Amino acid sequence: MSSEIAFPSPQHRRHGSSAGQPLTRRDGVLKVTGRATYAADNHPEGMLYAVTAVSSIARGRVTALDVEAAKAHPGVVEVLTPANRPPLSHDPDDKIPPFGFRVEVLQDDTVRYVNQPIALVIAETLEAATEGAALLNPQYEVESARTGLENGERFDTPAVGVGAPSRTAYGDIDAGLAAAVRVTEADYVTPPQYHNAMEPHAVVAQWDGDRVTLDMPNQALALSCAAYAAYFGIPAGNVLIRSPFLGGGFGSKAILNGPQILAILAARMLDRPVKLALTRAQMYGPVGHRGQTWQKLRLGTDGEGRLTALHHHVLAATSSFDEFMEPAANASLPLYASPAILAEHDGLRLDTGTPGPMRAPGEASGSAVLEVAMDEAAIACGMDPLEFRLANYAETEPGTGKPFSSKSLRECYAEGAKRFGWSGRPLEPRRMRDENGFLVGWGMGTAVFHCPHFPAEARATLRADGTALVETAGADMGQGAWTALAQIAAEALGLDPDQVELHSGISSLPDGGIAGGSGHTASAGLALHNAGVDAIARLAELATADPASPLFGAGNIGVEARSGRLHRRDDEGRSESYSEILARAGQAEVVGTAKAARDPAVAEAHALFSHGAVFAEVKVDPDLGQVRVTRLVGAFAAGRIINPRLVRSQYFGGMIWGISFALQEEAVTDRRTGRIMNADLAEYHVPVNADVPSLDAILIPEDDPYVNPLGVKGVGEIGITGTVGAIANAVWHATGVRVRHFPIRLEDLLVNQRDVTSAFGN
Amino acid sequence: MSLSIGLTINGQPRTVALDDPRVTLLDLLRERLDLTGTKKGCDRGQCGACTVLVDGRRINSCLALAASLDGATVTTIEGLADGEALHPVQAAFIEHDGFQCGFCTPGQIMSAIGLIAEGHAGDDPERIRELMSGNICRCGAYQGITEAVLEAQKTLAERNRRDAA
Amino acid sequence: MNRFDYIRPVSVPEAIAAAAVPGSAYLAAGTNLLDLMKVGASRPERVINITRLPGLDRIEWLPDGGVRVGTLVRNSDLAYDERFAKTFPVVAEALLSGASAQLRNAATVGGNLMQRTRCAYFHDLAGACNRREPGSGCDALGGENRLQAVLGWSEHCIATHPSDFCVPLAALDAIVEVEGPHGGREIALDTLHRLPGATPEQETALLPGELIVALRLPAEASSFSRNARYIKLRERTSYAFAVVSAAAALEVEGGTIRKARIALGGVAAKPWRAREAEALLEGKQATAQAFAEAAELALAEARPSGDNAFKIELAHRIVTRALSLALEGTPQAMPALPASPFPALSGANHVI
Ligand SMILES: Cc1cc2nc3c(=O)[nH]c(=O)nc-3n(C[C@H](O)[C@H](O)[C@H](O)COP(=O)(O)OP(=O)(O)OC[C@H]3O[C@@H](n4cnc5c(N)ncnc54)[C@H](O)[C@@H]3O)c2cc1C
Ligand code: SF4
Ligand code: FES
Ligand code: FES
Predict the structure, then answer these.
(1) A397 given a catalytic annotation
(2) Is ligand 1 within 6 A of the CB of residue C28?
(3) Topology annotation, domain A402-453+598-762
(4) ipTM, 2 decimals?
């Protein structure tokens, strides 16, 4: 296959010509015809299959592996174990910043979590490699597993998430609580969750001398190249990663993991291409997850329902050997006005794989709990939950007092409430029934997400035929980057998106930064925008310096790029097409390049966040406790919207993750052994189509002159925040039962109406 | 042991020499016949990514032993478009943004085609949702999927009426 | 998956002869067998494909009004067979509430009956499991067992049988026709699956090599067609196994219950027929009170096998619900969400 990856296929329906239009996806045709190639679809000549054998204990040592039995299976070529694993050039116990984790690559016989790779079997067929791995029959020396609060090891941590402070204090929390008329206090638990992108992690590795080509889904191409280069002792430029399509990532494909490194190593060792695809079960361990949290919220309120104190304490689980803790308490920092806010975290070491960033890391689990606590506080104050939030509206960033670069949360509340029909909502629970006697409940939550920006680079080439090629090593894991980025570039280049060819998803292109933190459109987009502007400037130089051009001498006045032509700014009638300019100059093309990053002064001076409000209706069977989310309405303000069709899909996806978090997802761990008893997709539930009868996302217009020159904020993760709390609050409103753990299950709601009615109002 | 079976795949009769009786239809398509449009999401019947039509019915190809399908007719995502013209279901998926990452999409589309052919959902969105529930989409494109199936269902019904007239 | 010999018999006697060799397994659609082979919980040395056996894929109506369904009839074909769905609506509803459309298109009658437990420890080779490996112990006891059995379990095994289909079949006195090395015989569906006792590995009444060839529903079972429902509680709206489920079928005349049939799913190692509860209802007025008493009786023997006391309460409530819905009458058309307690949402607002 060619190493160039292009997304020219502009078969999308035309609605208009530039950014802001709801174009259909550029890669749509490839995806609906099965021609989009994901990593595991590659099959180079002579390829071998690798399958990892994984540990079934959470802690201890592997004492024996029946390598002979595996090798005796026809077709098995090699078995990699700690005994024969070739050396790596970088110590796998030594993390590679900024997102490097300690990886398990058979460096020793220690087992630190269930599903850790303990061997790699390579064979001529997938069937042989799979059975070879099964035949290894590992023996262990087992140590007792630390699986929960009772036996986990607590520790102080200076940082949570990726380098976020673990403790942030504004004002005097004790004074705030002392001054409160009421203090609402409760404990909450969120479960371990696994990304479970539909596409299992995979790699096809091919070596050519000291160069390696990796077909793999990857959310951070340049960083990954550097890290692989370090592990394999080769220059970063010798690593080529091709990631034209990712079958979902959600954070789990931004970070290197042991199995993929082992497969690459095997390919080098055997001098043949090797393919490895994790099984679904094997994704419950070495590729990150959302760690469990235990959270305590204390909300002090005054007589008017205004917060006097907001204290959010989180105990966050991580592995025994590395740190990634859900920065959940930090979700309480940017949202509600309070004279005193304290967000703090402790760590808990368990014998699990290391958690990692999973769609809205920290924000999701923190917001889930904060929004429930806010609901509880509103009820305690006898206020409508929306009214209560408005009473605590933050005009500037709480704590820092920084102005928001833009904040349209009020509009989100208003529009969302209107579309949902919130105004008739009774304060008390268990007051609404549908025509079939089902309990109906309405709840709401506020959505918020920060706006990171990653450095990125891009190139834009205007070609003799008047079209353009734009290039940046970005990643599209479903958010629609190929389409939105092309729209941004087209706008900068004064072209129709159909005239812009985008190359991306391969590491040989200019560094497109990281596709994470909902910051990819802004980051790679700004680089493309700047490259486009640079290309136009160079083209303008050619034209304005050429006496034969109608634009001659317009250098100081300036030109504008529109519809493939440069126009004199002061005289619309004087213009010339790009191809004419290039032809006369005798140039085949003009190339613009750019690097883009956030202006630190902007970040210093402003609080940068997307906002939203989510309203949920649930129906609950009054006897059986089964819940269905019958309506979700979200209103979100996230700066400028490049493509409303794609953005709506992102919001929907996030909201569905909210349903999942609230009602379904939980990795169930056997407390005795640390084994995950539902490491699959049958018992680890995520929503199916029938769980999602009605979604509505309102795109609130928002003009942000500061966040970046494009005015673009992020949309990929905010949908899950707000939604989880909204659903949990709706369940309370329907049933009168306040569930303080996730997911909310059938049995939580099996109470007698009598008990509930009397419980209300306390 | 090599086992020979006959299959008609996307309209083409083929004789397949199976090198191993353990091969599932999914691994036959993906790893041996270079038909990688069909995806493996779980390999255990739990996600629907591997949905194909066998003798016109949608099934999970990961839980079908290839050897047991001797003589069958198999339609995969690669066999839908007529040259450059998309099948109405494919077109509707694009129009309604019924996917994001696209990994579940071949399975969703094959499932939708199966569903429409079965004829039990009609234009009832709730029935479509229920009968599309064997296809998990982690990206959460369900609303677009439901809308796409509804529209394609109408387009195809219309086409059938025209053809009948 | 282990290596195996693949055998394609062309007749029932040939299949039975092939299966006489120890280590053999019948392969129908494979949606359960292959799954278990992939995780290694099942490692047959010989796989005998029965899907080409002649004559086993028909739905035959018997002169007395009963029906005989060949073992190779696919779950979806049976559920959507018009006459079958009209005559035995509770069976059709149970079938359509199971698995997914794709799986139902493949799954066979016999395969569904013979599917193994979903107990996570049964699938987890690192765990002790008496059912998979007799004498090894039962890791579900004292483990993650919130979904395990509350009726008929023993300290040797607390697993449940996952089939939805079997629940109304047990209620309606279905009969399984079997052929084996020693000829044919009939087994009441209610006795097909065995309670674990001290030998959980003996899952069914089938003897080694015996092949299910057909399933029969007696003509009397059709007398419930107007008042029969299957209700299934799940942790998501669709594509999930039952937490608990219940089939209820009534014959009512002027408010009086003439005949009642009740069976529960997800509560035991077999579909759980509640005969005493049925007897209690017969001759009584169909009232909420009577239904509650019946539910009480149906669950009288229930006890938690772990963190699952809630299932007893749920089972209790679902029996009551299934009975009252059955009394309301079998819906004219199959509900959009078969067996769901939720009625369909009409006109959910997003759809164009
Ligand atoms: C993800 C998933 C979800 C599911 N959800 C549900 C659900 O909600 N409800 C539900 O009821 N089921 C559910 N199922 C199970 C499904 O119904 C069964 O897998 C299916 O019915 C088995 O039929 P089969 O023809 O594929 O059997 P096979 O897998 O071929 O066989 C299953 C077993 O039966 C034996 N067998 C088959 N035929 C015969 C025969 N004629 N005589 C003797 N033995 C025989 C086989 O040897 C094997 O041990 C689910 C399955 C999956 C994978
Ligand atoms: S409950 Fe039964 S099936 Fe489950 S582990 Fe125990 S013995 Fe095995
Ligand atoms: S891959 Fe077949 S159902 Fe998931
Ligand atoms: S589009 Fe990504 S899983 Fe469905």
Answers:
(1) no
(2) yes
(3) Aldehyde Oxidoreductase; domain 4 (3.30.365)
(4) 0.98
